[in-house]
Design a protein that fits this description.
This protein is an alpha+beta fold and 493 residues long. The chain contains 18 helices and nine strands. Helix content is 57%, strand content 14%. A five-stranded mixed β-sheet has the order 3-9-8-5-6, with no helix packed on it. Strands 1-2-4-7 form a four-stranded antiparallel β-sheet, with no helix packed on it. The chain is globular, with a radius of gyration of 28 Å. It starts with 7 loop residues before the first helix and ends with a helix.
Amino acid sequence: MLSWSIPPAATFALALTAILYLRGWLLMRRAGVPFIPLWRAASFLLGIFSLWFALASPLDTFSGFILTAHMLQHMVLMMIGPPVILLGAPLVPLVRGLPAFAAREFAGPFLNWRLAMRIGNALIHPAVALILMGAAMFAWHTPRLYELALASGAWHEVEHACFFLASLIFWWPIIQPWPSHTHRPRWILVPYLLIGDLQNTVVSAILVFSDRLIYPSYGTTPRLFGFSALADQAAAGAIMWVIGSTVFLIPATVIAVQLLSNRRPLKATIAPSRRAASLDVIFAIGQRLSFPSRLLRRRFRPDTIDAMSFVVIFIAAGLCLAALASRVSDDDDPALRLSQTAGPFVVSIFALPGDLDTGHSEFNILVQDRDTLQVAQDATVTLQAKRDGTSQSTAVAHASTDDSENKLLQNADLELPAAGDWTLNVRITQNDATAEATLPLRVVTPERGIAFHWPYAALGIFAATLLFSYWLRHRPSRSVGVRRALPISKASS
């Protein structure tokens, strides 16, 4: 329970998504739209919470040390979160939860854009969805890509995004969230799910029956429990096998029973004409939901106030998300620099790989009991760096878990002011036991350059795209100009 690590950017994004959904759901409920009952809203919120749990719970903390925890995290992102979210029929409530200007000018036109509809329909075709799911599962479980995700925090996030998006597409044809519909026979979903289960079984069987470590990093990282890395790999494969097969086979069995008993699936069915009419009503909801002051209402039109409100909300939320996502931390890409037995402890030191730059450097220390491998989170850890051949040393730094993203590791920040060879001394104290470990360091002067924060660049590109699309929809038409010019030409002639 002490190993929770809250990711600020993901937490903010998921909380914002939940707020938008709830706002849209409440608007629809007030308008009397019956197609999204309370249990669907609860399902969506449960799915959002499952995603947050996968990213913030000890599953993420242990994922770099235990393959079993990492596999459980992937199962939540692929087998639990996406289908539970889709059961909440999220499309229309999320659109309706947006500010009125955003729903009217961006979300609505995009969803009605023919190219977007064609791409969406192509992605959720069972054959395409099955290929995407298999590609994501097999590609990211190859040793090279899996090791890349373990070594880089950014690639780890890309891996999670690929798993979630591919799973969202895979589960869409099965759940078919309202208001989407399909004309394909439902029996296709039975072999569709069985093939998905076969893909999952192949990957998990490789992990279970392999007689060697497929991912070498788990052989060199400190073991947190008594079982070996190979046993951990087999356990991870077994968990993937059991959970995956259960999630795939239960809906396949339900669909087969429904087909054999000639029972129609329990879902809201709407005639095409009524569906179009109901969507028009839904997209019209919320036009009056704004809270401008009386001064604004007197000076500006309602459409202008909606646009101003959207711009303020967009800038505030976008800058908050970009600031949280651009936080730089050495916890993101740590490398094991030393692991040795020191007295009654096993001490592991993590830092950025390669030479360290002058200035602040972050070190993460894992202290374990030598006999039980239990993490000694109450141990006192003191760090001191000394430049070789001189008496110059940094100030003493005390490590703690307060600022550490991984709560198993104690974090400390040291100032290395000059380039050269340094020696890091780590002193561990717990009760009456004391031990020391040393690590040689090479410090270099970094090349000066302009720091690039991609979240702010992504925010700017997204804002420019919205502005360009708005300009395209509202630019003056040339044909209108020509028609207006014709009467003048006739009069002059």
